[in-house]
Amino acid sequence: MAPIRFEPLAEGALLLHFGEGIDATTSDRVLAAAGTLAHALPEVECVPAYASLLLRFDAGSWQGCDGLAPHLAVRDAAMAALASPQAASPDPREVTVPVCYGGDAGPDLAEVARLTGLGADEVVARHAAGHYRVAMLGFAPGFPYLLGLDPLLAVPRRADPRTRVPAGSVAIGGAQTGIYPDALPGGWQLIGRTPLRLFDPAAAEPAALRPGDRVRFAPIDAARFDALRAESRP
Amino acid sequence: MSVHVLRPGLLTTLQDAGRPGHAALGIGRAGAADPPAWRLANALVGNTGGEAALEITLQGPALRFDRAARIALTGAPIDARVGDDLLPPWTAVDLPAGSVLRLRAMRQGCRSYLAVRGGFAVPPVLGSRSEDLHARLGPFGGRALAADDVLPLGEPGAIDPPEHLRIRRWGVDPQPWFDFAMGPLALLPGSHAGQLDARSRERLCGDRFRIAASSNRTGARLEGGALALAAPLELVSEAVLPGTVQLPPSGQPIALLAEAPVTGGYPRIGQVAAVDLPTLAQRRPGDTVQFTAITLDEALQRQRARERDLHRLVQRVLDRGESER
């Protein structure tokens, strides 16, 4: 297990590197550390990514500890907390996301089939069979980056990004898969769409998915998509 | 009791200190692009609760006040009139009920702040009244003001409603808080700065870059001789911040501003020092930017000194306003 590398990013920001790649083991370490530090250092904001964890803090309130610069004081506090982790992370939730694959809901399904050399049905079957985990949220509010894509489904991003991807679109970009929570510009390949609302700023918990959640995709047909969409409208 | 938007201006948004604490959900902070100017505008009108102000970009709006109000304009100096009366910048002014405030162009700089005593009484979203245009989040759904919008005003506390425009006797010298000289900006080297090729490393802190017209609250796009990495880098997305200077494949750097997304996947070649980030936000398309390297310790010292000065000034302005009421 690689040691944690600490990088001061800005006056009030420290980046903890746990590795370099997109893999479940590294992501596990990041999310466990995020849980521990959120508990041990509540005044520090923890932002997990695939292989790194950002700590944001008020540089003014961390000054003066034995003359240490604030990021050194935060580094030491983080190292001490990580040496004796508390079981503070909430249990990961299991979330099933219904997806209508192909057709208008997934206009790039045929292109993904062509790029992978698999049939469209095979692409859907492999995508829906995956066990995914939310590694991080980013790009836009509530946008989940999911670990666990079948490597055979990895395809390049579109050469020509769309200016507006419909909300709920399920997409593949490189070795990653994710869901657009809102109508956004985007360059990933769209293979399906969920009727679930992934982000609602007025809700007690605005993002439907949070880092660490386990996700399964359940294929549905267009009629079911319309019915569920009508139900999930506010 | 409200302000009616007669003309929205080029891009006018509600902004406060922003929306910290939600980055793990993919939600950036947003908030005023020039926080000291926003804080001083509020202090000049006697606000102490982090009230939202209007952030005005390049061309100002026309606003009708349906009740008396104490206002102040800070940030970039802007042509501001009520009828034929010219309003002084960085000074508190009392407007009678029914005043139409017409804001036009800025002589220099990119963003002015209009604070109103009592603030704007719109419901906060996730703890903030900032409009995040990038994330489409805020009291107006993350959009700029439009004609016919109505902004409810908060409780102004005790002011005597004036019958005529009344310019208050207290103001702030903008000189230390607005960079009229357009000097170089301090840059902390980013973790991938060492992987620029030798010529690009010289250019990063040496060349002048021009602010591109496509710049916005998310980022200042810097045009100049393209920068290049010595060898391509394979990166996975990680956290970015306001001030982070990213290098996309085009070789034209992007310095992220208040509406920075929370993660990004481009090489990070620098971080604009916090003390100079408001100054960067005041550069307008066509202005130039030059960077000068700074160490983290120097950046911290300058930022602390700046914060101390600002805190003292805010206190003095508030005390003065209190004693003259």
TrEMBL record, chain A:
InterPro entries: CT_C_D, Cyclophilin-like_dom_sf, PxpB. Gene3D superfamilies: 3.30.1360.40, Cyclophilin-like. The keyword Hydrolase applies. Keywords: ATP-binding, Hydrolase, Nucleotide-binding. GO terms for molecular function: ATP binding; hydrolase activity. Signal peptide: none annotated. The keyword Nucleotide-binding applies. Residues 4-209 form the Carboxyltransferase domain. It comes from the Bacteria. This is Carboxyltransferase domain-containing protein.
Automatic annotation (TrEMBL), chain B:
Keywords: ATP-binding, Hydrolase, Nucleotide-binding. Pfam families: CT_A_B. It comes from the Bacteria. InterPro entries: CT_A_B, Cyclophilin-like_dom_sf, PxpC. Residues 24-309 form the Carboxyltransferase domain. One of its GO terms (molecular function) is ATP binding. NCBIfam families: urea_amlyse_rel. This is Carboxyltransferase domain-containing protein.
